[in-house]
Write a structure and sequence with these properties.
The complex is a heterodimer of chains A (262) and B (426). Chain A is an alpha/beta fold and 262 residues long. Helices cover 39% and strands 21% of the residues of chain A. The longest helix of chain B has 23 residues. The chains are: A alpha/beta (262), B alpha/beta (426).
Amino acid sequence: MTLVAGVDIGSTTAKCVLLEGDRIVGKSLAPVGVELVKDAERALAQALAEAGRERHEVAVVTGTGYGRFKVAFGRFTVTEIGCHAKGAHFLFPGTRVVLDIGGQDTKAIKVDPRGEVVDFAMNDKCAAGTGRFLDVCAGALGFDVSEIGALAEGARHPVKVTNTCTVFAESEVASYVARGKEPPDILAGLYGGIVGRSLSLLQRVGVEPEVTFTGGVSRNGGMVRTLERRLALPVNVSPLSQYVGAIGAALHGRERTEGISA
Amino acid sequence: MGASTEEPSFLVSARDRQREMIEAYYADLATAGGAKRPVAYMLVGGNLTEIVRSFGYEVVFPEIVALNCAIKHVSLPNILQAEAQGYGLDVCGYVKNDLGLQQLGGQTPFGRIPPPDLLVCSFSGCYVYVKWWEALAEKFGCPLFLLDVPYLRDERPPTEDLGYIVAQLNEFIAFLEKASDRRFDPASLRRTLAHSRAAEEGWVRYLASGARRPSPIEAYFEAVFHMFPINVLRGTEEAARFYATLNAEVDERVRSGAYPVPEEKVRLVVEGVPPYPNYRTFWDFFRKWGAVSVAATYPKVGGLFDRGFLHDPARPLESIAEYALGAYVNQSWPLRRKLIEEYVREFAADAVLIHGIKSCRSFTAGQGDLRDRLIHDLGIPTLYIESDHEDPRYFAPAQIKNRMDAFFESLDRRRGGAAEPLRGAP
């Protein structure tokens, strides 16, 4: 069976997935630095190490994400929009809408029953409502972003975070702390603000079940629950949700290779 | 990301001829001004250039000066100067370029722009523009005439609206007689309008060639470039001759197979003002995917000649009134949407691309609804992207390219294509 690789170079992390048939046999995830070519090489090497496989066994590598053109050893490039659509459809075949919140952008993608992009909408240039926004605000509360998922569950009087600017939102969080507001209430306000911005993107492409939530922010349980409440719909989240772009890239590469060889 | 230096090879003689015309226009303008060769400032939308020129005025279009500054990458210092004077970030880039340029002395890389002796606010659909002309009138102490043109709400201009504009044109002529100390010459105006008509017919023929498959013209990037004679030099024999040259070149392109892209893969209708500071970079994002604009709305902001709003020497003021009402920029949103839908059908387009501009809400507002209508009601693939027509700070190349790549990629895949191969990869 053909072994294919997808390498997703995002704004904050590099991900790689090795796919053999429909089985994920290796994966890696690491922060990106300034040398994206090396980050891409390292992502593939780590995934191969996890799988116990060799580079020569990989039939095709496909790059995606903002740094996709830095996957210098790759054969194809596909935008992360196309890859998230394909990857989400692979994990949840009933997916019709994908919400991807990554480090610096948010995408709402409408997909057809084959996992092809029908329409998409993305956030504007600023990072409001993205993973970076959450990082900054968690920092202002004295937490690491990995610690805040469940904290908002204890919220009794959620605050309203009105700023759409990441920098100003940090100041707003600091002012709530100074006024004695509890972290769960502040976090609930933050989740509500981010989900509100995401909903406007989702509404532009049209919301219909099933909705699949991908990207680093989907690892935050508080965000998932807030999104489900606002949508009044269950939301698909995979333990592999950070790898969805890389999975999609691998699938695109496989389709393309099979198309060429056919 | 740097701007591309590659020249589209299908542009040949007409492009060079137009460059000469632009250079001659600005060289001539640099020595104008004062009683002998007074200067009138005017706006492009529904402009009254034939009437104004018949009174001996040289005409400056500050919007066109501004876009020329942006294409030459010199708009930002003017914009920053205007912001230092107190104009906010969200004020129109054209306005800030002009007011900043005036404050800095009017010198541009393409010549000195003389101050106005007369201000003609020929497009009243944008309130910011009215205030712009008022600011200039205050700065230069020169007379200001405001032509109030109602938005076009029906495809056929209402009789009462036409009568309202014709009455204002008669007032305008009396105003010009007083300001210039010259008598109105109806025969001269009719001659000028005949030249305008000839240029307009040539322009319409050029634009119609986008319906061919493959299209021999780029109906957005190339047509925007070739708007200069129809907007600035309209009413001269030179403009009419130019479009005859351009059409002969297009005929030759069809004969020789010289097209905007080697293989036409996507036919687009484009709506919106271009990002002039990044014009070539933006065009490259299309060409890379074999995407060609076959029709566009923006080249019709000055006049919707292809929908019959032509000047008529036999009905001088009436046809000027119809023209001013019918300019694309003056059309209501339902009419704009209808026109775009017609273009998609008539030019057999695959998709629509909308470029919104941050500093012009009057033209951009409604583009989000347009996108929704095209996608959700008509099933026409549509991409909305946003930057600015004048301010380079709003152009984010990586993000714009990413959206365009995703859009063209999804169009390609829906037709059974595949992702773009990486250049140089094994």
